[in-house]
Amino acid sequence: MGVLQTAKGIRVITTIGEIKEVITKVKRQGKTIGFVPTMGYLHEGHLTLMRKAAAKTDFVVASIFVNPLQFGVGEDFEEYPRDLERDVRLAESAGVSLIFAPGVAEMYPDGYGTTVEVTRLTDRLCGRSRPGHFRGVTTVVTKLFNIIEPDIAFFGQKDAQQAVVLRKMAADLNMNLEIEIVPIVREPDGLAMSSRNKYLDPEERKAALVLSKALLLAKNLINSGARNTADLKREVTGFIGREPKARIDYVDILSFPGLEEIENVSGQVIIALAVFIGDTRLIDNVVLEVD
Amino acid sequence: MGVLQTAKGIRVITTIGEIKEVITKVKRQGKTIGFVPTMGYLHEGHLTLMRKAAAKTDFVVASIFVNPLQFGVGEDFEEYPRDLERDVRLAESAGVSLIFAPGVAEMYPDGYGTTVEVTRLTDRLCGRSRPGHFRGVTTVVTKLFNIIEPDIAFFGQKDAQQAVVLRKMAADLNMNLEIEIVPIVREPDGLAMSSRNKYLDPEERKAALVLSKALLLAKNLINSGARNTADLKREVTGFIGREPKARIDYVDILSFPGLEEIENVSGQVIIALAVFIGDTRLIDNVVLEVD
After folding, report:
1. How much is the pTM?
2. Exactly one of B46, B51, B133, B213 is catalytic; which is it?
3. Has domain A3-182 been given CATH number 3.30.750.24?
4. ipTM of the complex
5. CA distances from B146 to A34, B65, B140 (A)
């Protein structure tokens, strides 16, 4: 079985065999395929990716799969929010043609044992805090790319390191697709959209603004002429430190997309943050072009 | 440029960009693509793969690439025999339509950093003797599969563990192709065909028969009722040990294709050998169905 159908007609497929059949038919019709991989619990950031995909390709597939391989021990794989029914409705409204929502055993059957790893770019930022995380991401995305065979895959700039790592993987392995990175979508008050924002209680929700405000501070300092990354990181760290509910995982300023350490900001740079607000780990970033 | 052409018209392409263009055209014509990856210095074993590919698919691509990633420190990457002109002639005679012969920098440009790894099946046999070897194989084959996009890829049973590992990789990563394994081709006296046979001096060439003879011994013992793998391995090891030019790397009897240790032979099993004859490491195997 593995096929659900909503009133309006969007299909939810849960098996690899069935979705490959659909993909083969779609390709035979000469249609281009856009792909938006997600872990579900969709928000406006995901929907922006889907609308973009619908504008650029003929047939949009979204996947909803909370990938155990990219969660570490003690991370939130079990609690990660899930709501397939709501997701299907939202995806449909954003122009998605088909949803692929496999179970864990469908993606990683007994005896599964193959990994894809980008050995560069993954030892810093989130890769340092979450060992194995990017190997989990590159492995599942390789599988999904082979299953969906998209012409263009869409990822959010919110996970900036993920975007860079996936582009590197696709280039290194000569994959036959484009990867398009879509800007961060924010709440009206500046908080970057994230499924994990759901974990925040009202006090934490207010405290979480410290991330976007810290990035704005760094941007303003740079616009005022600050260039030394150590000084800038000290300012940002101090600013976040004044929020009692915040605990810094990392504050970094690196070249972009190379993610190299730099002494002074110059050219294209990324300011990237990971901060725990209570027990919830949030990330945010801004990419700047500096003269 | 990157394109050579022989008198009869077979093309040799050395760049990924150019071969992808050709592949796109071939696919647009609705032709099926057969693929035979090799490290060149072709022998009858390779040609058998190519003829098989030509019989089963519309357009056969052979790659010739001595892949540095699958050679360990102190192994024979530098000395591995190469003769592109001869290979092109032979491949053409075996029904190949196109040869892809990239340089190392084309496959692994500066900054290259992505690997594909099968974590099961690779810790035994050649994987134990040659750490990193299979990671090099699975990485280059993933790249080649993405570049050539074959419907069927052909590999030889001589590299039995490689065949099993690649099938596992293709299944785990949901690759869109079939992998066909073609039986070992032997010299009239029983020596399995290998590009490395070229390294053998006349005395070593004679001594090298110890591999196929040892397999025959094991097969005869099993046909006569022997079942205990420890006993069988002892017999085979003793037999090879009586050849002064031979030094055993491994002698193993495992389930096939699972490659699990077994106490008694039963069901489908592989007897696999790696033996140094002088400085040359040779491998051979036989797969048996045992009642």
Report:
1. 0.95
2. B46
3. no
4. 0.94
5. 19, 15, 10
